[in-house]
Design brief:
Layout lengths: L1 E3 L2 E3 L2 H5 L6 H11 L8 H21 L1 H5 L4 E11 L3 E12 L2 E9 L8 E6 L2 E7 L5 E3 L14 E2 L2 H12 L1
Antiparallel strand pairs: 1-2, 3-4, 4-5, 5-6, 6-7, 7-8, 8-9
């Protein structure tokens, strides 16, 4: 890549080194080099998707009173997740609309750092991770003064800790 005035341009010699093939052939080769593409462990993926839906059911239940009062709007959606060992797959997401802003619960994957799953709460440029521990409990990882998550601080996800996380993100 060449940079001209801050914009990357493709080096023509790099393009010339790519062997001619169709896009489909190229993608098949990439998939084979990376050991898959579509989730290779359907049972593991399905269990993770079930766990995500259960988390969203819990959040929707906790926010039911606010939703009934018209203070929040809850919408489920789909996102694409790419995860080593599972490849790419569609995963459920949950969007919480409140006060003219949205917080998206966006699944990041199952095996991230020392967790058995991570879902980030994202609002604008701010993000708070929800991580699942080895006992399959969801924990909130609060942000520090810089806005970055505090690695060693984790709180059990409850209606109260979710409320505090949402207040922090929506302010």
């Amino acid at each position: 890549m060449l940079k001209t005035r801050g914009v990357e341009k493709l080096d023509r010699s790099a393009v010339d080194r790519i062997p001619p093939c169709s896009l489909a052939e190229f993608l098949r080769q990439q998939r084979s080099d990376q050991g898959g593409g579509v989730a290779s462990e359907p049972a593991i993926r399905e269990k993770w998707l079930t766990d995500l839906n259960q988390l969203y059911d819990l959040v929707e239940g906790w926010l039911g009173p606010e939703q009934a009062e018209g203070l929040v709007h809850l919408t489920r959606g789909q996102v694409i997740v790419i995860e080593e060992g599972l490849g790419w797959y569609d995963a459920p997401s949950l969007v919480i609309g409140a006060g003219g802003k949205t917080v998206q619960l966006h699944p990041m994957g199952r095996l991230i750092a020392d967790t058995t799953g991570q879902v980030d709460l994202i609002c604008d440029q701010r993000r708070l991770p929800l991580v699942r521990d080895s006992k399959h409990r969801w924990l909130v990882v609060p942000g520090g003064p810089s806005g970055r998550p505090l690695v060693n601080a984790r709180y059990l996800l409850t209606r109260q800790s979710l409320s505090e996380a949402l207040k922090l993100l929506l302010k």
